[in-house]
């Protein structure tokens, strides 16, 4: 798989994106609400004690069971299994879902499980988002989930810079109630496991910021009127 990922990354760096659509027919899941859909997902595919359960439940519930357009960077076939969660939402309530990852592995792992309402791409996430905005510039995106660069507590700036680039790329379609959820953006160092708290506290003492994937996005949005932070645990949730 490592060889395939390297080949996919080389193609992406050359501007050649791979894209596939889901194969499973869309249809309503046996759930009463979006809130219940998230709970059922974590109970069966992850666990209800997962650090991201509450924030993803808040974000999905805020969509209100309405047909929605959802965009994700950092396809996930493990952990929160977020790609299948978003696919389940659009397959049940309507809408469309796009996910992008620089690795080929998530696409290969998930393609048989995704509905025809979903599309997966292997590409550089910033370039993908720019192309997505060019194609759908007149459309509002309902939920954007940024989770494409692993956070290194000892060197969090690369992930934060990449996250800011992603946000700026998709920003033109974030409007009129759009939601933005950013992973690995803890509200305080207390959200880090014990072995990482010391490094996180040192970074905060030096830079005045809790290290996180969305720390630069958070700084940017604090100065932007009309944007509200409506949830902040290990992930940060904003409404435009």
What tags apply to this protein structure?
globular, alpha/beta, 240 residues, Rossmann fold, 9 helices
Q: What is the CATH fold-level name?
A: Rossmann fold
CATH architecture descriptor = 3-Layer(aba) Sandwich
Mean pLDDT: 93
Spatially, the strands of the biggest sheet line up as: 1-4-3-2-5-6-8-7
Number of helices: 9
Strand content: 15-25%
For the record, what is the CATH homologous superfamily label? Answer: Vaccinia Virus protein VP39
CATH class: Alpha Beta
Structure description:
α7 (157-170) links the parallel β5 (143-146) and β6. The chain has helices spanning 2-13, 34-45, 53-62, 82-93, 105-110, 125-135, 157-170, 194-207, 215-222; strands spanning 18-21, 68-73, 95-101, 118-122, 143-146, 179-182, 228-232, 236-239. The chain starts with a helix and ends with a strand. α2 runs antiparallel to α3 (53-62) and α2 (34-45) runs antiparallel to α4 (82-93). The mean pLDDT is 93. The longest helix has 14 residues, at 157-170. The protein contains 9 helices and 8 strands. It is globular, with a radius of gyration of 17 Å. The protein has one domain (2-239): 3-Layer(aba) Sandwich (Rossmann fold). The chain is α/β, with parallel strands linked by helices and 240 residues long. Strands 1-4-3-2-5-6-8-7 form an 8-stranded mixed β-sheet, sandwiched between helices. 41% of the residues lie in helices and 16% in strands.
Protein topology:
Elements: H1 2-13, E1 18-21, H2 34-45, H3 53-62, E2 68-73, H4 82-93, E3 95-101, H5 105-110, E4 118-122, H6 125-135, E5 143-146, H7 157-170, E6 179-182, H8 194-207, H9 215-222, E7 228-232, E8 236-239
Parallel strand pairs: 2-3, 2-5, 3-4, 5-6
Antiparallel strand pairs: 1-4, 6-8, 7-8
Helix pairs in contact: 2-3, 2-4, 6-7
């Amino acid at each position: 798989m490592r060889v395939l990922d390297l080949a996919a990354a080389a193609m992406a760096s050359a501007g050649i994106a791979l894209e596939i659509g889901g194969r499973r027919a869309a249809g309503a899941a046996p759930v009463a609400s979006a809130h219940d859909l998230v709970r059922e997902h974590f109970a069966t595919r992850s666990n209800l004690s997962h650090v991201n359960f509450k924030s993803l439940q808040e974000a999905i519930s805020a969509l209100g069971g309405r047909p929605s357009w959802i965009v994700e960077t950092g396809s996930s076939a493990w952990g929160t299994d977020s790609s299948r969660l978003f696919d389940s939402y659009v397959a049940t309530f309507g809408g469309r879902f796009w996910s992008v990852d620089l690795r080929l592995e998530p696409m290969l792992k998930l393609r048989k499980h995704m509905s025809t309402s979903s599309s997966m791409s292997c590409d550089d996430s910033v370039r993908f988002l720019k192309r997505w905005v060019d194609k759908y510039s007149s459309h509002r995106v309902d939920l954007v989930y940024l989770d494409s660069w692993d956070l290194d507590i000892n060197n969090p700036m690369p992930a934060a810079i990449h996250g800011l680039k992603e946000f700026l790329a998709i920003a033109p379609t974030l409007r009129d109630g759009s939601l933005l959820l950013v992973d690995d953006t803890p509200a305080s160092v207390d959200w880090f496991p014990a072995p990482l708290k010391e490094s996180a506290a040192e970074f905060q003492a030096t830079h005045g910021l809790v290290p996180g994937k969305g720390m630069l996005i958070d700084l940017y949005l604090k100065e932007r009127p009309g944007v509200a932070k409506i949830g902040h645990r290990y992930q940060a949730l904003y409404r435009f």
